[in-house]
Design goal:
The complex is a heterodimer of chains A (about 500) and B (about 100).
Chain A (H helix, E strand, L loop, with lengths): L8 H10 L4 H13 L7 E4 L1 H16 L11 E5 L26 H8 L3 E6 L39 H8 L5 E6 L5 H7 L2 E4 L19 E6 L2 H11 L29 E5 L9 H16 L3 E5 L7 H16 L19 H12 L2 H14 L4 H22 L5 E5 L15 H5 L6 H5 L4 E8 L5 E8 L4 H15 L10
Helix pairs in contact in A: 2-3, 5-6, 7-15, 8-15, 9-11, 9-12
Chain B lengths: L4 H10 L6 H18 L34 H5 L5 E2 L2 E2 L7
The chains are: A alpha/beta (about 500), B mainly alpha (about 100).
Chain lengths: ~500, ~100
């Protein structure tokens, strides 16, 4: 009997289309795996009936000879940042606990239209603010990976899309949605040895996605290989009149366009990413990545992105500023939690509701954002950060004169343990140092597995491309995937 | 620039987030740590640089001036924590 947990998106889609098995068999098998993996805490809400309903519809369509969608019969996990009609959507927060949207996000609607089914809503960092999945109101997500020292230390699955990464690495689902504001698809993908791509800003509609920092937020797929990411991104992307920053462009046929022959491609290696004291394993993986791309026919060139060191501090002004504005909507009046102390007026109700409903990291970021936007500080902080953002984007533009793609590590280290970086918010923020520049510039960027650290933990290689050139990013990802020989998996302890 | 406890309390008020005295004390250190770190942005020469407004060049679209949505009162009210009839309920604001 087929072990459906071993099949990826393409294999499930093709098997269902060929009649090798029924979509319902896949849904049943994965529902059972999801429900047996509670120790990972990857799901906030399981929706087995949704997975079955979608699968039955696909099986019926096939029996009737109707054409099947790009994701027909593929059960996926949905990050709990996407509003799903009739299904609780919390952004992993207390303030939205019990919120049941009366509408469906464009990206999730696109996926259901393509024939995918929903296994459940995935845990994440609260309002997507975090890099370790420790800010969720519904508890930490645990990575399926453990260090090779025989210990049982619980490791971070990365964040903010940590439920997505954990569930895919544990083979609870072949793929899941993620969102990336400053690395939230790529860093968790790197931490658990899977692939994930953040497309160009504007490719995937933000409509119905709980907003964090609107000029940065971008949805994308996470899966176990590059082809599966290409398939799912095709299903997710597309113009949406309901999102004012949605790009009115056709969706390329990324899967058909996959080609790992990189002859004629120039790969830039940014010297500023080779930080003093860079982790030895990460540096070695990066060198391997360079060798693999060379082997695929690419030419390697040294480049400079001179404003790289300012990307992270600029991000930690811009993202909280936008968040403080976006999260003003949680007022205890229209939806979500209300905390009305005895005899309190409207203003007290707002303050009490928001204090009770937002977690510590969310409150911290709202307050930073409020401060940098407040009278007298706006120019010194916010305007300055937006100017530096323009310089970071210009760095990339200049680099494209001498290269077509950029190769760098995804994160400065392999996964750390839950609780190890909690004491100081800054040390947690530094985890996104390699991921944030591409976010600020709106560029497509992908993480693919690059090898294991000395501790036996996955590390990720990041490929950054020109705006709208997801195809080149995916192709380089495929070239690495074919050469890295990455087959390691987490042992099934849960 | 650094913040003191009064400033933290003011930011909390502007943010409409109630904080206790102990939380304000803790926040002073945390915010100052973060602000000291972002201070380095001041050393970048930004003369003549326009602040970024759109990350991918895009023009704002105009749509036809017609009603495309609405008539969904019950959906809008469905998640209200304290709805009263067909209205959002709030504490009394006018004496």
């Amino acid at each position: 009997m087929t072990d459906f947990s071993r099949l990826g998106v393409a294999a499930i889609r093709d098997g269902v289309a060929d009649g090798a098995f029924k979509a319902v068999e896949v849904a049943e098998a994965l529902n059972a795996r999801v429900s047996a993996a509670k120790a990972l805490n990857a799901f906030i809400l399981e929706t087995p009936e949704k997975a079955i309903d979608a699968a039955q519809a696909v099986d019926a369509d096939r029996a009737a000879g109707k054409p099947l969608g790009k994701m027909a019969g593929v059960p996926i996990g949905m990050k709990d940042l996407f509003c799903t009609e009739g299904v609780q959507t919390t952004a992993a927060s207390h303030i939205l606990e019990g919120f049941v949207p009366t509408y469906e996000s464009t990206v999730s609607a696109n996926l259901w239209k393509a024939g995918a089914g929903m296994l459940g809503k995935l845990n994440m960092d609260q309002f997507a603010m975090g890099s370790s999945n420790e800010t969720s109101y519904f508890g930490n997500v645990v990575s399926p990976w453990r260090r090779n020292d025989g210990g049982k230390a619980a490791l971070a699955p990365g964040g903010s899309s940590g439920g997505s990464s954990s569930a895919i690495a544990a083979r609870l689902c072949p793929a899941a949605t993620g969102t990336d504001t400053g690395g939230s698809i790529r860093q968790p993908a790197a931490f658990v040895g899977i692939s994930g791509i953040k497309p160009t800003y504007g490719r995937c509609s933000r409509w119905g996605v709980v907003a964090f920092a609107s000029s940065l937020d971008q949805a994308g797929p996470m899966a176990r290989d590059v082809r599966d990411c290409a398939i799912m991104l095709e299903a997710m992307a597309g113009f949406d009149p309901k999102d004012s920053t949605s790009l009115d462009l056709p969706v390329p046929a990324w899967e058909v366009g996959l080609n790992s022959d990189l002859k004629g491609k120039r790969i830039g290696i940014p010297k500023e990413y080779r930080l003093d004291g860079i982790d030895e394993d990460i540096a070695k993986m990066w060198d391997n990545g360079i060798a693999w791309l060379k082997d695929a026919g690419a030419e390697i060139v040294d480049i400079s992105l001179p404003h790289t060191k300012y990307a992270l501090p600029a991000y930690y002004i811009i993202a909280p500023a936008e968040a403080s504005s976006n999260l003003a909507r949680y007022d205890g009046v229209r939806f979500g939690l209300r905390d009305l102390p005895e005899g309190a007026g409207l203003q007290d109700m707002y303050a009490a509701t928001r204090a009770a409903g937002f977690g510590e990291e969310v409150r911290r970021r709202i307050m930073i954002g409020t401060y940098v936007l407040s009278a007298g500080f706006y120019d010194a902080y916010y305007t300055q950060a937006q100017k530096i953002r323009a310089l970071i984007a210009r760095d990339f533009d200049n680099a494209w004169a001498s290269c077509d793609l950029i190769l760098a590590p995804t994160a400065p280290s392999a996964a750390f343990g839950l609780g190890e970086k909690n004491a100081d918010p800054l040390s947690m923020y530094l985890n996104d140092v390699f991921a944030v520049p591409a976010s600020l510039a709106g560029l497509p960027a992908m993480s693919v597995p690059g090898g294991l650290s000395k501790e036996g933990l996955p590390m990720g290689l990041q490929i950054i491309g020109k705006a709208l050139d997801e195809q080149a990013v995916l192709n380089a990802g495929l070239a690495i995937e074919q050469r890295s020989g990455f087959t390691a998996e987490a042992g099934e302890w849960w | 620039m650094s913040v003191d406890k009064d400033t933290v309390n003011k930011i909390a008020r502007l943010s409409r987030i109630a904080i206790s005295d102990a939380e304000a004390d803790k926040m002073v250190g945390e915010l100052n740590g973060i602000l000291a770190w972002v201070e380095q942005l001041g050393e970048v020469d930004v003369i003549g640089v326009e602040p970024m407004t759109a990350v991918i060049p895009n023009t704002l679209r105009l749509r036809d001036d017609v009603v495309t949505d609405g008539d969904v009162r019950d959906k809008v009210l469905a998640n209200a924590p304290a709805k009263e009839g067909s209205f959002f309920g709030v504490p009394k604001v006018i004496e």
